[in-house]
Amino acid sequence: MSPPTTTIFDRMSALARELGAINLGQGFPDLPEPPELLEAAQRALVEKSNQYPPMRGLADLRDAVARYYAREQGLQIEPEEVIVTSGATEALAAAIFAFLRPGDEAILFQPFYDAYLPLVERAGGVARTVSLVPPRWSLPLDRFEAAIGPRTRLVILNTPNNPTGTLVDDATLEALGELCERHDLILLCDEVWEGMIYGGAKHMSPLALSSLRERAVKVGSAGKIFSLTGWKVGWAIAAPPLAEAIARQHQYLTFTTPTPLQWAVAEGLGLPTEWHADHRARYEAGRDRLVNGLTAAGYALLPSQGTWFVTVDLAASGLPPDDEAVAERLIREVGVASIPPSVFYRDDPERGYLRLCFAKDDATLDEAIARLARFRQG
C-alpha cells in the first residue's frame, strides 16, 4: 500500500497562505453562498431534530435526490436506491470497500481524483491505469479493453472529469457499458460535477443506460451542486443489491451525516431548474472571464465543459512543459497557486498542462490574470 501523504491541494493551499498568493489551486469557491441553502440549514437546526437520522439518510433527502434526478436528468430512481454519505469521497470509499476484495483489480482512468488509488489499495485491490488522450482527453476503448483481466472487478470513471473539465461522450459511455456488461464489471461513476456543466453540454449518467443500470453506482455531491464544499453531504445511487452492499460499508465508515444539513439539501434539491441554471451561470461567467483574460495574455487553454477548472497547455503557451516546475515558479514569482495535473497520475504522467480554478470573484480573477500575464512576459 502506498504510504499516506499530504495531498497536493493541502500543500499548495498551505504555500499560498504562507506566501499570500492567490489560490487558483484548490477547488473551493469564494463567491457568495446560496442564501436559500443557508436559511434552510438555520431553520432545520432550530426547528428539526439534531439527533441521529436513519443510517441510509433522511427519507426526505432520499426522496429529494430521486426527484432531482428525474427532473434534471430523466433518471428513474427509487429512494431505496439512494445512500446518503458524508461527502462524495465517503460514497466512493463505501463502494470501493463493498466491491473489491484483496487481489481484485480496479481500472482507473488517468488523470484521476487523488482519493481513488489509496482507497483501492486500502481495500486490498490492485489498480490498473488507462490514460485519457490529450488534448481532448478522450477515453481509449481499445486500451481499456486490453486492461481487463480475469481479476478485474471494478471500473472507476469520473465524468465530468477533474482535472480536465471534459465529459465522456454518449457513444463512448455506451461502448464502455457494453464492455462492462460483457466482462461482468461494476462501474463506479464519480459524477460530482454534474451540476457544473456549461455551454449547453449534456451529461449522461451510466444509470441512463440499460447495460449499466444494474451494475453502475452513481456518486453525487451536494457540496458541488450548491458550492458548499464544507457541508460534506453526498450520496451513492445503485440498484438495490449494490445499494445494500454499499450501505453495509457506510454504516461502519461514518454511519450518518449531520441531520440539519440533510434537510437543507433536500430543500435545495427541490428548487426549480431555473434556480440551478442561474447558480451555474455564475461559475460559467468566471470560466469565461479567466479564459478570455489568459487568452489575451497569450496563454493557450483547452476547452472546459464542466467543473470549476480550466487547463493551460504549457508548450502551446510558450512555457516549459513541466507542470510541477511551472507551478512552483508561479506561486513564488508572481503569487498564483495552481495544480500540476501530473499529480493525478500514477503511471507515465502528462506534464505539459496546468490546472487553474475559476470559482473566484471578478476582482480575484482579474488580479490573477494580471499576474499570470506578467509571468509569461517575464
TrEMBL record:
Domain Aminotransferase class I/classII large: 22-372
GO molecular function terms listed in the Swiss-Prot or TrEMBL record: transaminase activity
Pfam families, alphabetized: Aminotran_1_2
Keyword Transferase belongs to the record: yes
Cofactors, names only: pyridoxal 5'-phosphate
InterPro entries: Aminotransferase_I/II_large, Kynurenine-oxoglutarate_AT, PyrdxlP-dep_Trfase, PyrdxlP-dep_Trfase_major, PyrdxlP-dep_Trfase_small
NCBIfam families, alphabetized: PRK08912.1
UniProt-recorded name of the protein: Aminotransferase
Species: Croceibacterium selenioxidans
